[in-house]
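Q: Could you predict the 3D structure of histidine kinase?
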Amino acid sequence: MAVSGKRGAKAGKTRHENPLVRHLDAVSLSTKLVSIILVLLLVSGGVIAFAVRQLVSAYIVDKTDNQLTNQAGLVINNIDQLQHADNNSTISGNLYFVQFRDADYNIESTPLVPKLQGSVVSIPKLPASGSLDGIQFGQPFTTDAQVQVGSGSVSRSSLKVAMSPWRVVALQYTVKDPDSGDVVRGVALIGLSLHDMQDTLGIITKYFLVVGIATIVFATVMATIAVDRTLLPLKRIEKTAAKIANGDLSQRVPSAPENTEVGSLSASLNQMLARIEQSFREQRETTDKMKRFVSDASHELRTPLAAIHGYAELYKMQRDYPGALERADESIDRIEKSSTRMAALVEDLLSLARMDEGRGIDLNQKAKLNGIVADSAEDLHALDPERAIRLGGVTVVGTDAPLMSADGKAPEPARLEFQEGKLEPITIQGDPARLRQVITNIVGNIHRYTPEDSPVEMGLSVLTASLPHVDLGKMPSTDTSLDQFIQAVQVASSTGSGQRFAVMQVVDHGPGMAPQSRQMIFERFYTADPSRAREKGGTGLGMAIAQSAVKAHHGLICASETTGGGLTFTVIIPIQEEPQKADTGDASATSATANPSESVRPAKA
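A: Sure. Here are the predicted structure tokens for histidine kinase:
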């Protein structure tokens, strides 16, 4: 195995070091394709030219053989007339060479010898006198020419004609003897020049050469245009890839019909680029959030630590002065408050870290949402006895139809609305402690940032929405996501099918928040009023923890504007199982919902 690996590495190294291979690798794809096309044309043209030459040559030879065989007797019987013909004319393909030999193959005479212009004589090269050297009778054969040049100038065309090969046939001839009948007298060798064949093949060769050159030039131009046009999408992909390599991830490959290879490649590349861009964007956002998180965490931890350190130093400086005990109690009290705030902050940070890692939450439990909402209402009432708290359900009102109403007014947009009544008993699969923490954090924000006498509504219902294959946990906590869910509820109401969702809504009528602030409310360490948050004990992590807990349940949490002013928190969690009936023995779940018309009212001072 080691030897084989060494051989493979050596072969790969040799290949890369081969100058020819490196030169070929450096040639562009379009040049390679054009070259391949030209090579194929040359090979095809050469094969066709060779086939045509062979076909024409075989045809002329066959025609000459037929002429020799069919006219042999006529030539022998008319030798005297042929001898008186004008032998000084150029061979036209019908002038013969004739030689007689006796029964022992000795040359008797050569009565017909064609002559060319310029006293050039061309005869076939035959076996010596007394031998036929294996020549078969009646079987034509080809032989070279023997040229004899007389005195005077000789033209090149005459020499060319004279050098042409001959086609010769050997025949036995007889004479009729009155006494003994037919008697073999000897052998006649009759030949015809193949000048016509050579001339025809020369013309064909020139024709193919001229046509071949013209075809190659034309094919080169057309192949270059066709290859460039065909490779144009790949060149665009190359330019796009170069821009992407320079850092512009927003570039996309020009689209093409997906039934083609380039179109399929473009679609796949664009899909891949979209995912890469999304991954880079998410990585950048994650990095930015991590940097901001570390910075904010350091800042938030620095404040109580500085207070602890400062009051400790102050106690050391003043412990020898009169009244040191009273000042020590004040310093210890401040140190205790700072440490308590720091402990709460660390606890929140640990909770977020656990949920980010997928730990600290158990989705295999049962959570009674009506009990959680009722308990949270009691907690808020204990914090703000003067606050009016109403319990009930949640329903969708309004329409998304763009048509005008009968009175000419625009229709009311669809929205979730609180309806006072009895809390619906709803049990889902989830972590009750984390879900309780979600509502508790929302209630804590209401206690900290709204007036004590502003009313609060808390609703809980089950709504059916047509959201196939949609994970609410991956949707952003924005008004757009909430609107999409409301539209899905309307679709499900018209079709009668869909998935059931538990919808919790907490509505306050406080000062509310600006739209740009609502978009940041779920970011870590974000507080609309940092000074007031510190006064009330807020860390800026409550809404981030609530969002992480809801997303862990594959749900959605949104903060929207309350009609008339205020802030509305909506929590939507999918129901995996059928809702269970309320447990009549659970006092905590029914303490605030014993009467359908009953609500938590403010206690009198």
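Q: Anything worth pointing out?
A: Residues 403 and 411 are 7 Å apart (CA to CA).
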